[in-house]
Amino acid sequence: MKIIKLEETASTNEYCKTLDYDEVVVSALRQTAGKGTKGRSFQSDEGGIYLSYMRRLNGFPAENAFKIMINSCTAVCRTLELFGIPSSIRWANDVLVGGKKICGTLIENTFSGGYITRSIVGCGINVNNSFSGELGNIAISMKEYAGKFFDKEKVEREFISNLKKDYSIDDYKSYMDWLGSVVTLKIQEKEISVKAVDVASDGRLIVESGGKLLKISSAEVSLRL
After folding, report:
1. Contact by Cβ (8 Å): 64, 89
2. Which of 28, 56, 124, 191 sits at 20 to 30 Å (Cα–Cα) from 182?
3. pLDDT digits (tens, 9 = 90+) for 23-53
4. What are the Cα distances from residue 99, in Å, to 42, 58, 67, 89, 219?
5. What span, in angstroms and rounded, lies between the C-alpha atoms of 124 and 142?
6. Residue whose C-alpha is closest to residue 81's, from 158, 173, 179
7. DSSP string covering 137-192, please?
């Protein structure tokens, strides 16, 4: 597998799209235009891991797309565990430590004829960053949680190794200690409280509301624990 390390780039995901490899990892010390889900920007100051993993896929049904999310989020949690940091997954793609965001994931897939032909998994993990002000209320780094600096290169190596492993939906759900609890769903400007019951194999959140079970897509709502 090819690994490309950059000092700076606009976005590691966008950089991957210019390459012609079957499997490649691109990492950068800084991103000037880091991207999150739903068009959000992602702060990418030096000290974090900013990495994209691109693969060409053969015979991967589009209906199994959530499997890519399962593998990426679980890989983040397993990596943090190796360094003594407990984490949880906030459906569908955020990893939290102590209730604050330590990692976000942006997956961009290319589809053809009912199959995924290329997948780019972009992850930003806060390692030795520091956050203050309003951002400090919602974001955290490994250094801030543990009170010490980490060898970022070692963390990155372990993460790349974990990214290449295969995980189950049960592995993914094992980091969701809030399943079975009441959570808040934000739908446009409206917020509703529901009981989170489970996560379906296609990635939809199964909730109980008004005595009925509903399946909710992450494209439609955001979740607040």
Report:
1. no
2. 124
3. 999 999 999 887 665 555 566 778 999 999 9
4. 18, 38, 25, 10, 22
5. 12
6. 158
7. TTB--HHHHHTS---HHHHHHHHHHHHTS---HHHHHTT-TTTTSEEEEEETTEEE
